[in-house]
Design goal:
The protein has one domain: 7 Propeller (Methylamine Dehydrogenase, Chain H), CATH 2.130.10.120. 1% of the residues lie in helices and 52% in strands. It has one helix and 34 strands. Strands 22, 23, 24, 25 and 26 form a five-stranded antiparallel β-sheet that branches. Strands 27, 28, 29, 30 and 31 form a five-stranded antiparallel β-sheet that branches. Strand 29 and strand 30 form a beta hairpin.
């Protein structure tokens, strides 16, 4: 999940070390349900932070599902009352002062719903209707309100369609454009502050990308990034204010019979004004896992991932490439990555029955901090920064000891 704050590079590179404030006691964000899944956590320029989650319950042999929101005002000690949303929403993004856009779940329809950081959403707006199953979607926005939606239509074995529709600020979504037809396994999208649109996809064992320059209506040619085999690549993308683009991924071959090949964590950078991505740099080889990418201050990016043996690892860009990775913990699974107003990256991960976090600055981690318990659950973890303060907010799912229900909880550090 990307977290973007436009800061000065000086803060990240030369900010003095300071002791991290303690985390608050976990606060219940949702009512209890049989199952709860955190879907998004976004921050508006108005200082509100919006949590979005889904629930599942069974009663009288009937399954019921719901989508919920709760909002936290800047500097508040916790989230306000939960609000039920009629549409089935996920993967939300914030833009402008208090606007939010979220994708809807539908195997044959691509649609978004617009809302506000107070948790209110309107009816879904259809972008496209597919004759075949929609296998994957990607949503991107920038601060001005440009929006891009990319999706894969599953047409068979080697002829899937990758489609994209772009909406300018205060405009309408464009007619869907097919970027490629080939064997597709995943997609990611990003929009830079200037308006560049980046779409990257996993073409079986290769990573490819196309970019629409700012102010243009057409995408450039397909760029196949030179890399190690990228089977099952989990892609993350971003573009900074200078137009520099990054694609980062973790990949590993897994056969239907259970045979596993070598795993790789790689990243590729495309400099502003150039036509192609540079060859991908290998950050780690081995049994790697979940990865997160965030845009840091100035022209820098931060990437964090689960490394070989379960170690929590991270690196920041140094010019046109990522620097030497650093290790923060010997075991865990990456939850999220955020950049705070002091210019520090905050890495959050799940280990055992707890959520932990650490500050990352100038290639070194601070001491891991206990955020709160995550008992008997291993669902998504989301972290973000209050745009008006130094508060870091985290949400996750917890199942209290001895109970059948799960609930969404949150903690903050200010």
């Amino acid at each position: 999940m990307r977290r973007t704050l436009v800061l000065t590079a000086t803060l990240l590179l030369a900010a003095p070390a300071s002791a991290a404030a303690p985390w608050s006691d976990p606060q219940r964000v949702s009512s209890p349900h049989l199952s709860v899944t955190a879907r998004a956590l976004v921050a508006g320029q108005d200082g509100r932070i919006l949590a979005l989650w889904g629930s599942e319950d069974f009663g009288a042999s009937i399954r019921t599902e719901g989508t919920w929101t709760a909002s936290r005002t800047s500097g508040a000690t916790g989230f306000g009352p939960q609000r039920r949303v009629k549409a089935d929403l996920y993967d939300a993004r914030a833009y402008g002062k208090n606007r939010v856009v979220a994708l809807t779940r539908d195997e044959r329809r691509v649609a978004v719903a617009f809302g506000r950081t107070d948790g209110r959403f309107g009816s879904p707006q259809t972008i496209a209707v597919a004759r075949r199953r929609i296998a994957a979607t990607a949503l991107a926005t920038n601060e001005r309100g440009a929006i891009a939606v990319a999706w894969i239509v599953d047409r068979g074995t080697n002829n899937d369609d990758l489609m994209v529709s772009v909406r300018p600020p205060k405009g309408d979504f464009s007619k869907p454009l097919r970027l490629v037809r080939e064997k597709l396994r995943g997609v990611s999208a990003a929009i830079g502050p200037r308006g560049e649109v980046l779409v990257a996809w996993n073409a079986f064992d290769r990573v490819r990308a196309r970019i629409r320059p700012a102010g243009r209506r057409m995408f450039g040619r397909t760029d196949t990034i030179r890399s190690e085999d990228a089977f099952n690549a989990r892609l993350h993308t971003d573009v900074n204010a200078a137009g520099r683009a990054v694609v980062a991924w973790s990949a590993r071959f897994l056969s239907e019979g259970g045979t596993a090949g070598p795993g790789f964590v790689q990243s590729a950078v495309r400099l502003s004004g150039t036509s192609r991505f540079r060859p991908a740099a290998r950050l780690e080889t081995g049994d790697t896992g979940t990865l997160e990418l965030a845009r840091g201050p100035g022209r820098e990016f931060v990437v964090a991932w689960r490394g070989a043996g379960g170690a929590i690892r991270a690196a920041t860009t140094r010019g046109s490439a990522f620097g030497t990775p650093a290790t923060v913990d010997t075991g865990g699974e990456i939850g999220d990555l955020a950049v705070n107003p002091l210019g520090e990256a905050v890495v959050v991960w799940h280990r055992g029955d707890a959520i932990r976090a650490a500050d990352y600055r100038v290639g070194a981690f601070g001491t891991p901090q206990l955020v709160g318990p995550a008992r008997d659950t291993a669902g998504p973890v989301h972290a973000i920064v209050d745009p008006h303060t130094d508060d870091v907010v985290v949400i996750w799912t917890d199942r209290p000891d001895g109970r059948a229900e799960t609930r969404l909880v949150g903690s903050s550090r200010g």
